[in-house]
Every structure is written in structure tokens, then in C-alpha cells.
Amino acid sequence: MRATAVAVFAAAVAAFVPLAAGAVESIPFTMRDGAIAVQGSIDGTPAVPMFVDLGAGVDVLSSNVGRRYVVVKGKYVSLRLTGERVDLPIGTVNSFTIGGVAIDAPNIGIWGGLDATGVDGLVSATAFRDIATTFDYVNRKIVIEDAETFPDRKRVALRVPVMLQDDFGISLGVFARFDFGGGKTGLCEIDTGSAGITIDYSLAASLGVDLKDPRYARTPSPTGDRVRAQVVSVALAGQPQTAIPRPAVTFGNLIYDCTVGNDFWANRAFTLDLPERAIYVALPS
Q1: Average pLDDT of 208-230?
Q2: What CATH class does 21-144 carry?
Q3: 12 pLDDT higher than 60
């Protein structure tokens, strides 16, 4: 990129206002256990704690809430990140809101894995399938964009292509290619339900990490020890401006190359544009 273009781009990024005036609706969130936490309501009932988890695949409710409000119409079989099979009774509800904003939820599962966690629901990427939505980590808000605000977002942000894993219109995963330095990349799921970056064991050696090195911290798990180590950097592929140098990551046994959680987006904002298979990333000014 020529120097003039760089200067123009830098000026545009500096002018970025994380919450553009005129956005249709916004949903406040907090960070809890590294995840995006909101208040959600089913069929107009009192709000309960939920996570907005783009890595969940499908919207789910705890057994306590789901059995009261979901009209079950069938079953959906899903895989957790580490490969465990999950059988979900799945159906519909009359209405689903988060932060007082109605979201699209044509299929909702009931999952006992949420019971006793203090979280009664996971809102997946399916809720944002057809709308442009900004995850603003600076102001801790999810912003539903409109025809005026969305073009403003795009003008001052980095466009990154994404790939979608769409299973029968029920489950939806969002993936982007990330660069780990030294020419090594991985196709990573964007996971707002967790904090850190997790990389599959199979990529460790190519990233210069010896998983048997006793100096690395280890955490036992049902699918093998999770190993904490550093890699050269993590950035969105083709966007070196997004690089985080020498981040600590976790190596584990995954069904994907990697997942990238909320720590990567700290002090940034990104906008999902799933109909156009893209996200727009705004850097801090």
C-alpha cells in the first residue's frame, strides 16, 4: 500500500466512532467468564442471564427454561468443540429478546449442559443471519445496524471475508482465516462464548510448540491435556494491523483448526455481515 493510501486509511480509522448515532437498536452487555453476557427473555417472561455465543452453532436454553417455553418439534444432533455429541430436543418459541431487542430464533434447542451454570441460554450466530450487527467491545454494546449506520461502519473498517458452516438452516458457525506468523494460518471459528485463543494439537509443531515440553502449563481434560504456550502472533489473515504479538494460546483436541475468543477483539469492534460473507473490523483510534 502506498504511503498516501496508508495515511488516508489511518485518518479514517482515527475517525471511527464505535457507536454511530442513529443505529436502530443496541443491546448492552458485560463480560462474564470471558463471554458476552446479556439479559434474555422468552415469550415476554422476566429476563434471565444468557451468553451471546457465536460458537454455539444453535440457540439453546437450559432445561429449566426450555421445558417451559419451547414447543419441541424434533431433535438436532450437534458436536461440541472437542467432538462430544450433543442431542438437542429442538423447537420454537413465540418470542425471543435480548436486552429488550427482538431477535430471529426459528429453532431453539434445550440443553441440560447449561443447568446449574447460572446461565439460561446461548444466543448463536443464527440470530444475526440476516442483519448487520456490530459487536462493540469499547462501549460494551451489540448494535443492530440500519441502512444509514452500516455504510458508515464499512467506510472506516477492514473488510475480512468469512466462511459459514450452515447446517440445514438450524446451526450456523462463522469462520475466518487467522495468521499465526511465519506463514502459518488456520481457519478459526469466531467464538464470543469464550475469552482466549485455542488451537488444535495438529498445528503445534508447525508453530514451533513442542507439546511434550514440561515447561508448558497443562490442564487435564476428557480429550487430553490442554497445553498453554505462546505463538509468534495472531492476526486476521491479510490484515497485519490486527496482529497481537506473542499471545498466550491454548492447544487442545478440537474439531476445527482453532477458535478465537473475545480477548482478540478487546478495544475493537467488528460488524457481522453474514449475507455478504464478511466482517468489518474497526481498530482502536
Answers
A1: 94
A2: mainly beta
A3: no
